[in-house]
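idk why but the lab printer keeps eating my pages so im just putting this in chat instead. protein + magnesium ion:
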Amino acid sequence: MPDLALGFDFGTSNSALAVVEPGGDGSPRLLALDPARPGSTLIPTLLYIERDGTRHLGYAAIDAFVRLETGRTILRRQVATTREIDTVFGRELVRIDVDVNQPGRFFQALKSFLADDSYQGTNVFERFYSIEDLVAIFLGEMRRRAQEELGQSIDRATIGRPVHWAENDPAADALARGRMETALRAAGFEEIAFVAEPIAAGLHFARTLDRPRLVLVFDFGGGTLDVTVMRVGGDRREVLSTAGIPLGGNTLDEDIMDARLLKYFGEDLRWGEQGLPMPRQILDTLRHWYTIPLLNDTRMLAFLDSLGRETRQQRQVRALIALVRGNHGWPLFQEIERAKIGLSKVEQESINYFAEAIAIHEPLPRRAFEALIGRRVRQAERCIDGALAAAGVEAGEIDFMLRTGGSSTIPRFQRLLAEKFGAEKLRFQDAFISVATGLALSAAGERADLLTAGADRPA
Ligand SMILES: Nc1ncnc2c1ncn2[C@@H]1O[C@H](COP(=O)(O)OP(=O)(O)OP(=O)(O)O)[C@@H](O)[C@H]1O
Ligand SMILES: [Mg+2]
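predcted complex ->
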């Protein structure tokens, strides 16, 4: 019996694993991976490492973070440590800021850091973890759980990859792919194949078609938008083109923060005799939940304190200090995401976050959300047009427009697709598992049928 190969969708927000078992009807089976949600075949791509080295994944990572960190007052202390300066002079004594009662470290959207060469890794208490180490911890634990569920050792994986990890940057793409490969090997996989995520979704969809049809797959997830034009159905499995950009649901959450919530943290305040604005670089740091903690150092907090004394908008400064010191960045972004997801169903939502000095009540009508993501809709349209052009196909020739990925549920993007291709051509495939099932099919041999004709094909 050939070894089983895993179809592994390592997503920015969610991961899923599937296999095609020998002797069955050839349909992929999804694995249950998160003991904190026993019925679910999806696991949030999250990792929490406690001070003592204990690791939590998925929902358990959220539980640990909320239990141990949210609202915790950060206690900064300067400690003396040595730092390597160079190989000739050896080490020097430096003083650094340390959060002395930090219980653990939380990692989200690890996949988005793979293409970032300025991010090598991080210290988790006394130990350095490279980005590859962090990803390998997640992949390795997923492999272990899959092996336990299937009752056998698994050394082969077909893993999804975005069409492009970075925009117009082949070096960053190569870096991400290399890091992913290193992490997969460290996790114990010996035989590895990469398949672009939208192609995997297309393979899954192909099984529903009895004759060749022209399909455009629009896979809009948490970190990237990935598109492919394929001719599939019957025995045909042909990729005509692929295209992708690093635009995902996380970008939209950041856009909401940018456009609607910075005012709660001093965007409009004036301070000092000259009526100076809030430094732009501080506001930029608030755009990502994971950069907010960078403001948490003694000098910055002292600056914010003095700013608070020199402005009439003290409430905003107190809110900003609470955001930074109380570790509220991540839970605030969770609330933004909740409201954004709500807007896919209802016309009106509001973002509510009350903690310490933070008091946010921000109504967000769908209309306002659509206005603030207008630029993203145009980027998505350009991406689709690029895929059509590379395939040499007109929008009108597409038989089915398949959307998948969590963000493809957003009504504004559905409208874009309906306007471009006709509402009657829109098909939807389970937003969260179609890539994993397609990867399992590919791992079981479908990949061999892929013929590539188009440009912009990832290496
Ligand atoms: N109903 C919804 N409406 C709008 N957005 C949603 C909805 N459900 C999920 N999302 C968003 O979808 C994203 C997650 O989707 P998904 O799980 O497909 O991404 P992923 O596969 O982890 O990421 P990627 O493929 O980009 O690496 C998140 O940004 C989430 O906020
Ligand atoms: Mg995905």
